[in-house]
Design brief:
The structure holds two protein chains of two kinds.
Chain A (H helix, E strand, L loop, with lengths): L12 H24 L1 H5 L5 H31 L6 H23 L7 H27 L5 H29 L6 H33 L7 H23 L3 H27 L8 H23 L10 H38 L17 H24 L2 H26 L10
Helix pairs in contact in A: 1-3, 1-4, 1-13, 3-4, 3-5, 3-7, 3-11, 4-5, 5-6, 6-7, 7-8, 7-9, 8-9, 9-10, 10-11, 11-12, 11-13, 12-13
Chain B lengths: L6 H10 L17 E7 L4 E6 L9 H15 L4 E6 L12 H6 L3
Parallel strand pairs in B: 2-3
Antiparallel strand pairs in B: 1-2
The chains are: A mainly alpha, B alpha+beta.
Chain lengths: ~425, ~100
Amino acid sequence: MNAGLSTKNAPSPIVVLPHYAIGSIAFIIASVLLFFISGDIIKTNLNPQVLSVTHIFILGWITLIIFGALYQLIPVVMEVKLYSEILAHISLVTMVTGAAMLSYSFWNTYIVGTLLLQVGGSAILISVILFIVNVVMSAIKSKQKTIENTFILTAAIWLLFTVSIGIFITINFAKHYIDKSNFDLLKIHAQIGLIGWFMMLVIGVASTLMPMFFIAHKLNKTYLKLSYFLTNGGLILLMLSLYFFDNTYILFFTGLIILSGISFFIKYNYDAYKKRLRKKLDIGMKLSVLAFTLLFSTLVFGILSLTNFDFLSDFYTKIRIAYGVSLILGFFTSLILGQMYKTLPFIVWLQKYQDKVGKFKIPMPANLYSEKVANAHYYTFISAFVLLIVAIFTELQIIAQISAVLFIITSLLYSYNTFMIIFHKENLKPLK
Amino acid sequence: MLENLSNTEQEILNVIKTVIDPEVEINIVDLGLIYNITHKETEKTIHVLATLSARGCPVGDTILNHIKVVVESNWSGYEVEVELTWEPQWTPEMITPEGKAVLNM
């Protein structure tokens, strides 16, 4: 009986929980360091320290939690067991080690081919390859050939491209294998990483989870198919035009294709939101809905950054930084903050209470964390994000510093809830 | 569905109402997840036909176990089977008026 159940395929909590724990610590570290580089960000001075903090946010915070969440979600999305838990453990160790080495090297301004940087980069590459093997092998076993699964597989391929180009940049800096500036290569590296890896993965996972959590049915999947072809087609054209042409009009055109692809994804989720069963949103869904609002601001900055208007000529660098900030610290961070509340409590709840249901009075998953704390970091997060965007355009360092302090508070409150869930002690009461 | 229930089957349904969906936080009977109940006194068997609101539901197995546990604890000596079906697929129209009231639909 019971084909199609994900609970039987769920991985051991020890595979998933360390990703959430280490990810939340990385969020705190990155937020503290953000305070010290706030002056560089508002002066659009993209120095090695800024690169260091960016990589802690991207690798330590966003990537690590996405890896952990995906190990939990593969059984949900693909209806199979994760291919290998051992590979997942090794991938975690190599990612944490590699990210620490890379960020330390950047912070000490050693951009040019140091051993630490190369070993760190290679460790990240190994981690990514192991992760991709796990995703691809799980997908091969899966009988669910859905468009959502295709998004996840494609994201894994783009991730391999992203890391390979990143490592090539550090080598090319010293050896000059190709006659292309590292800044141009960095633009390709960043766009593939942000749109090809993160965005593609988010579309695949969110398009499965959001309708499930909203309990929305009868959604039109044609929007997702259109989104897939437009986003990927646009990204391939963007990559080619960045490398071969770097022409403003071509770039703007490719940007529009990607924007239309992402718009179809937003439309699909908006329909799920409109058809939702639960009208009152819990904190997890409030943060997730906020993420989609911030995705809209990201798209506006993204498109503006591809234009070439005279009246904006003094602002283009700021707009590009606002685009990156809006995507990494806005959309992705908000989505991760929210989806933690939709995944982690269930993982721990199932571990503690799966066999106790009906026999004892037990708490609900939502009782495993403090809703007051979650609501508090909802507001500190919004304030931190808005102030950082304001600081970028006004160049007022005090505003950037207040923003960083609010990010630190957000990360501490979020981590408090994360660890409260992870270390939840079984609470059983008699039924009568 | 859930028509022509005997008195015992109605009692079983009332017991299953104590099972709460952890995500939606309403009972699974009002959510419309129970399709049928068959009680056979002579064979000492109870069969519950249930569905879930989504394929891959992370707590699906727990909900089905919960049904089995509460029915077994109230009808000891019976063989209780809980069968999961995806036919017909669950839709929000299956929610009872009581469930819709709780969800403000």
